[in-house]
Specification:
Number of strands: 8
CATH architecture of the largest domain: Sandwich
Helix content: 25-40%
Largest sheet: 4 strands, antiparallel
CATH topology of the largest domain: Immunoglobulin-like
Distance between the termini: 97 Å
Length: about 170
């Protein structure tokens, strides 16, 4: 009888231990699964997102001198970008725009909504559509109060999900 009672108590203790282990481990497994699924979704979005800077130019006249060609009282650098991925880029105003040139360090340029009236600042126009979807061109207008010096420049645009492109150009 002692053996039967000992066996029953050991079985109950084993069931309780297994239940405790499952209750401790199961939430960690489901949490890890959720984190892996979220990371996978973000990676999938980044893989499906691609942008390419196709051209950049300053607001110059035929002689290469700065001229306010669009009559907005500022000197602009225009950057055309193409969405070559399959994802539509949303929250364009949250893109990061950086410019470097003539032996200067990279400078972050704020969007016009967050620039607080300071310059330089940038804004955008979707050239051939109503959203920045596949095969649509975006023009970024970087405005300065005074003309930039002639020389070589490098621009980097980073879209909100971390995909970026660089473009080297001369003015």
């Amino acid at each position: 009888m002692d053996k039967v009672l000992s066996t029953i108590l050991l079985m109950v203790a084993a069931v309780v231990c297994v239940t405790l282990v499952i209750n401790a481990v199961y939430p960690a497994i489901t949490s890890s699964t959720g984190a892996l699924g979220s990371a996978s979704a973000r990676m999938n979005e980044r893989i499906r997102s691609q942008v390419e800077i196709i051209n950049a130019a300053g607001e110059l006249d035929g002689d290469g001198d700065w001229q306010d060609t669009n009559s907005n009282t500022y000197f602009d650098v225009f950057v055309w970008m193409k969405n070559i991925g399959v994802e539509t880029v949303v929250d364009i105003e949250h893109c990061d725009v950086f410019l470097s040139g003539n032996q200067t360090v990279w400078a972050w340029i704020p969007h016009a909504d967050s620039a607080g009236g300071t310059f330089p600042q940038w804004d955008y126009v979707i050239e051939n559509g109503s959203e920045w979807s596949t095969a649509t061109t975006l023009r970024i207008d970087i405005s300065y109060e005074s003309p930039l010096s002639s020389g070589e420049y490098d621009i980097r645009v980073l879209i909100p999900n971390g995909v970026s492109d660089d473009y080297f150009f001369s003015m």
